[in-house]
Automatic annotation (TrEMBL):
PANTHER family: P450, PUTATIVE (EUROFUNG)-RELATED. SUPFAM superfamilies: Cytochrome P450 (SSF48264). Gene3D superfamilies: Cytochrome P450 (1.10.630.10). It comes from the Eukaryota. InterPro entries: Cyt_P450, Cyt_P450_CS, Cyt_P450_E_CYP52_fungi, Cyt_P450_E_grp-I, Cyt_P450_sf. Its cofactor is heme. The lineage of its organism: Eukaryota, Fungi, Dikarya, Ascomycota, Pezizomycotina. Keywords: Heme, Iron, Metal-binding, Monooxygenase, Oxidoreductase, Signal. Belongs to the cytochrome P450 family. This is Cytochrome P450.
Amino acid sequence: NTVLEWSNETLNVPGRTVELPLVGTNMIMTDNVDNIRAIMTTQFEHFGKGDTYRKIWSSLMRNSVLTTDGQAWQDNRNHLVAHVAKIRPTDYAVTERHSQSLVKVLSDGQPHDTLDLLNRFAIDVVSDIFYGTSTNTLVSNDQSLRDAIQQHKDRNTWRNLLSGLGALLPPNVKACETIDSYLDGVLRNFSPEQSESLEERDRKASSLLGDLAAQGVAQSILKDQIISVIVGGRDSVAIITTWALYELVRHPEILHELRKEISAGIDPSTPINPAQIESFVFLNRVVLETMRVHTSVGINVRTALRDTSLPTGGGADGTSPVGILAGTNVIMGLDSVHHRKDIYGPDANVFDPHRWDSNSKPDTWTYYPFNRGPRSCLGKNLAIMKVKYALCRLLQAFSVIEWLKKADGKLVVVDVDKEPAMKTKMAFNTKPADIVWLRFAK
Ligand code: HEM
């Protein structure tokens, strides 16, 4: 649970680039922004997810945009771009519906595993938007899909850590079958004509799945696209919203300021429209700061697809180019950049949305919650909308939010002034190391 602190300390050398002495694999770690820029953009073709990652993760993410490189990746991205990169007006109504389900579940006065509920919220919204039939995990007793994705990730995180050896180990076969049978069911039951209303029929027909199916795209490619929006659109939204709530509870004065902005701008009984979300300047700063302090892909790895070099970070003074052999794994310490004191100042580790008061547009090469360049997040706009929408509705619905922790087998309310900060763990994404138990009250 200290991987982020470790990466930041380890990189505190001239050139901020180090070779990690691991047996059986070449590994370089860097948070030098010139090197990150090269990997993400100027030398984009030299680096990719690589064969080992694909062998391990295709059991969950198939041959989708999330696992492929080269032409296969480009083809996948082309299938998705028109739908995933834009927000349709109906997406707000969908997000409103699932936000209300979230509020309902949280209204029982009990502490909840916030990340789990927000994962369910996120998957319910993306399934509804991209193929018109929500997983409805927030309201259903059947959590088999959620459990299968989790079990799959838990096993594969270990396989990933073992790198080439991990690729030889089997994935969680039962979880694979559950996910595959879910995807088959989505395709089998997809029928816009049988919708209950004209609005629903049009929404399904013009969705990602409706559009690709109408173009005659093969079934296995359709499954690749569906799983990429489910996996891509789930964890990060939940992680960022969970960290935002956690930071708001720990900073009552910021929570108060945000509540004021939201309550002056929207009515709890009418859906929130795009202009209203756009108008919330402080909400934007809270989300920007949450994604800086708690980057959901805080460590991102690329494999060199050929012999190449990084522009800087080598030699005694850290300014020479660094030779990179094909197959070398290069770890980008993105969270580490976000905590660099030479970039963000002496208070780089402090959560302070006001740091964005005079500069509400982050610098491209020192702020990367969504990556940069050709492989940046396709769902960025939707992601930000979902996070903001959920926060607005939760803060409107509940006037009290408490953070609880387990002590002697019981959950007790935390004294936020005394409680040490939550650690971050590495598990596919970078996320809270412990369960974030929150209790909401009206
Ligand atoms: C706050 C929420 C989100 C964050 C912080 C986030 C962040 C990221 C990051 C860092 C990547 C690059 C991953 C890599 O290089 O391996 C990525 C890729 C991607 N994201 Fe997101 N994401 C979020 C939400 C979403 C949503 C809602 C969708 C919608 C379906 C989505 C779809 C994708 C897709 C399809 C890719 C793959 C792009 C490619 O490889 O070409 N993301 N995201």
